[in-house]
Design goal:
Elements: H1 6-12, E1 15-18, E2 23-28, H2 32-37, E3 52-58, E4 64-75, E5 78-85, H3 90-100, E6 107-110, E7 116-121, H4 125-133, E8 145-150, E9 153-159, E10 167-172, H5 177-186, E11 190-191, H6 194-203, H7 225-228, H8 239-248, E12 253-261, E13 271-274, E14 277-288, E15 293-301, E16 310-313, E17 321-325
Parallel strand pairs: 1-11
Antiparallel strand pairs: 1-7, 2-5, 2-6, 3-4, 4-5, 7-10, 8-9, 9-10, 12-15, 12-17, 13-14, 13-16, 14-15, 16-17
Length: about 325
């Protein structure tokens, strides 16, 4: 791979992804934090300004409605919450939130087109930002953000930990995005696209709504409990089945990593076997440049989830083997 290869840049220098199509919802008003607190799996009520967290929106039965990041921001002089998730989900998320909005003083708005997002990934990401903004970036905790300016224009820079590499999301007005992109590239960021991002996010074990989970998936099965579920926050929608699963100490299926050796990436829905028994199904798969083999995310049944467990990939007659691996892969 050459120095301008997007994947190589992301893992060795810095790659730049345009994430502006990601769905973005804003909640404003005096009751915004308490309202979202009651509808998501994280402690949003006590989320300080400048902080953020990974969270799920669920149904009363703890099925996943959405998965994304909540930030307590001050943008254009107004305090608000932002919830951003994968493209194409804004309408669903707004409808879900509106369903529970009764008398609370909360204003809901879609901000997908009103906010551009450029994501910088790689070991040199901090250096690229320091050069671009001509000032040292402060140390940021996961999902924490800081307000900066570029030629007098506001840019919100957020620490992103989804790909297990140094990464930052730069939120700005769409009109500013071309200039910001130009400055980041001039500071040695390499423009990158969907193929490189998909490899990075599967290697990191980062699940995507609509691919690795949907409204039929029990939230605890996604395997993001430590990162996205707060068990001490009090009542919230879907809490009862989540706590019951915690108290049982197990779920029937869990999203896990699978090393698949040489060969092409597996298609979604590919079945995995332990002996003659089907024990799992693949949701995402890529050929990993860092690991030198195919890897996959798959929901595996209890008893077949331990790292090191040997599995067979359908069709089993082909003899292709797989091994369960702890996430993240790389």
């Amino acid at each position: 791979m050459n120095p301008t290869d997007p994947y190589l840049a992301a893992t060795q220098t810095a790659a730049l992804f345009d994430r502006s199509a990601d769905s973005k919802i804003e909640l404003a008003g005096p009751d915004a934090r308490l309202f979202l607190h009651n509808l998501c799996t994280q402690d949003v009520k006590n989320l300080p300004e400048g902080a953020g967290c990974e969270a799920f929106l669920t149904t009363a039965k703890a099925r996943v409605m959405a998965h994304g990041i909540v930030n307590h921001v001050r943008w254009q002089g107004q305090a608000a919450l932002w919830f951003d998730t994968v493209p194409g989900q804004a309408e669903r998320v707004l409808a879900h939130l509106n369903h529970f909005l009764i008398s609370e003083q909360v204003e809901l708005a879609e901000r997908t087109r009103a906010l551009a997002v450029l994501q910088l990934v790689g070991p040199a990401a901090t250096t690229v930002l320091n050069t671009t903004f001509a000032a040292p970036l402060p140390a940021l905790k996961p999902w924490q953000h800081v307000a900066l300016t570029l030629d007098g224009n506001d840019v919100l820079v957020r620490s992103n930990v989804s790909v297990h590499l140094p990464a930052y999301d730069c939120f700005c007005a769409p009109a500013l995005a071309p200039l910001l992109q130009k400055r980041l590239v001039q500071s040695d960021a390499v423009p990158a696209g969907n193929q490189a991002y998909e490899s990075l996010r599967v290697e990191a074990g980062w699940p995507v709504y609509g691919i690795d989970m949907d409204e039929n998936r029990f939230v605890v099965e996604v395997g993001r409990n430590a990162q996205a579920i707060c068990y001490t926050k009090g009542c919230f929608l879907g809490q009862e089945p989540i706590v019951m699963a915690r108290d049982r100490g197990q779920v029937n299926r869990t999203l896990a990593g699978v090393l698949c050796g040489a060969g092409p990436a597996l298609t979604a829905g590919t079945k995995l076997y332990a002996g003659d028994a089907e024990v799992g199904q693949v949701t995402s798969s890529v050929v990993s440049p860092r690991l030198g083999q195919t890897i996959a995310l798959a929901y595996l049944k209890r008893g077949s989830q331990a790292p090191g467990t040997a599995l067979m990939i359908e069709p089993t007659s082909a003899g292709r083997q797989a091994v369960v691996c702890a996430l993240p892969f790389a």
